[in-house]
Amino acid sequence: MKQGTLLAAIDLGSNSFRLEIGRYELGQIQRIEYLKETVRQGSGFDENRNLSQESMVRGWECLARFAERIAGFHKSQVRAVATQTLREAKNREAFIKRGYEILGFPIEIISGSEEARLIYQGVSHLLPTDHKRRLVIDIGGRSTELVLGQNLQAHVTGSFRVGSVAWSMKYFPDGVLSESAFSKAEIAAKAVLEEAIEKYPPTNWDTAYGASGTVGAVADVLQSQGWPAGEVSMDGLNWLIKQLVRASHVDHIRLQGLKEDRRAVIGGGASVLRALMQLLAIDKLHVAQGALRQGVLFEMVERDDRTTDVRDISIQRLAQKFALDQTHSQRVSKVALQFFNKSIQDSGYEPHLVQRLKRKLSWAAAVHEVGFAISHSDYHKHGAYILENADLLGFSMQELHRLSLLVLGHRGKLRKLDADFQEAEFVKMLIALRLSVILCHARKTPNQLGLEFYCHEKNKIFTLEIDADWIENYPQSMHLLRQEVIAWQKTPWVFALTRSSRVKQPA
After folding, report:
1. Is the Cβ–Cβ distance between 215 and 137 less than 8 Å?
2. C-alpha torsion angle, residues 427, 428, 433, 435 (rounded to 10)
3. 236, 297, 355, 482: which could join 222 in a potential S-S bond, CB 3.0 to 4.6 Å?
4. The pLDDT of residue 293
5. Is 204 exposed, middle or buried (0-12, 13-18, 19+ CB in 10 A)?
């Protein structure tokens, strides 16, 4: 990545939306601007788990303001990620579609484990390399993330559906604060979090850090009251909760250091924090400077260098876990990329887009047989299910869905795909993968001499030109290619076979 490149990370959290703009310099990212708006989208669910129109409008209005600030940024400079609220919302696609139109950049929904990993990246990059084992916690609006790691490497990640907004709405309705409410909230939080005891016991970490949100709000209040700066102790947290109970209602809280946007959710956040500190025997929690948005920024830098893209590692691990035939996968990948290169010769795609599409196609080729682990019958369907539900670090939920569609569509009928055949880039990846699988059906490198592939994007026609000798020498492949012609008849695109009219030169 070039020195001085501006990068922007947008965190669509359950309580707040945040925009972080930084400049990449000498391996570090220097903050240029930070914007935060309290949107409280996590409190906008109806009984059917749909976001209300009002809560979506609040989010869209915030994104419009963010869009004005990052106008002129290229797609490679911006990444927007959404967390638990949009993971839960049944109508999330409606919000994301309109949000994309307003923001001008795609919005990725990331899994809980991926959110935890990115939080750790943000925290660890702003800490010294001390080789200590770290526990990082982040109590958000509707979920709490826990991570064990060392230096820049996250080892254990987890996400739990308990958070400051959700717990405030459920156990402190109408803003009422009481001892009994805190007791019920903490018992409920422990019921959700108790499985964390096995993975995150005190014997597995040396120092505990709290990132963003609730931990920062509690630490600010404690510091203003004379407690040590940059940390939350159990004694300090007990003192704070006593003050909240004494206030009896969020409107009556008079605590220096408590920001107005935290007043309504401090009860839920503090109860979850105390439950977690008690469960994991945390006496002192250090306030981390980094958070999810910083992790997203550093991830953008790493993705710019293929050797450090965690998604490549995730694909490799998945292939190893399911004992895939990597020699065959590499063969399929090589042939698919050759077809894809021919399909984009006259497309005018920018180099960074071509590189990104090739990487996605190579991932699909690498794991296209992952469904064999379940059954050889309909293995492409099993493979798609595995990818749709996998927790692959580095991938957003949309990326996994697209990858699953390529695996589902690499063989068989095409009408089963819930895919947009108007998106030329996807269609080109799909046919490249399908043709590669056909030609590699004997699990050996195919002879491509005598084959020419063309893409007429405007007319939505793919043409495979074949010479007479090839047709005669490879009857099984020809049978499969003729079946492929039929498969594309159910789509807006056409795949055609033609006989080459070229005359062979004498030897």
Report:
1. yes
2. 100
3. 236
4. 95
5. middle
As a whole number of angstroms, the distance between CA 163 and CA 145 comes to 10
- Give the pairing type, strands 284-288 and 207-211: parallel
Task: Please state the pTM of the whole predicted model.
Answer: 0.86
CB distance 443 to 466 below 8 Å:
no
Alpha-carbon dihedral of residues 99, 103, 104, 108, nearest 10 degrees? -60
- Alpha carbons 135 and 141: distance in angstroms, whole number: 20
Tell me what the pLDDT averaged over the chain comes to.
93
Helices (H), 14-91: 53-69, 84-88
Tokens of 98: 């309109």
Q: Which two tokens mark 33?
A: 């601007």
- CATH numbers and ranges of domains, the chain: 6-110 (3.30.420.40), 127-288 (3.30.420.150), 309-499 (1.10.3210.10)
Quick check: helix, strand or coil at residue 210? strand
Write out residues in the chain with pLDDT < 70, as ranges. 305-308, 502-507
Structure-token pair, residue 444: 């050996």
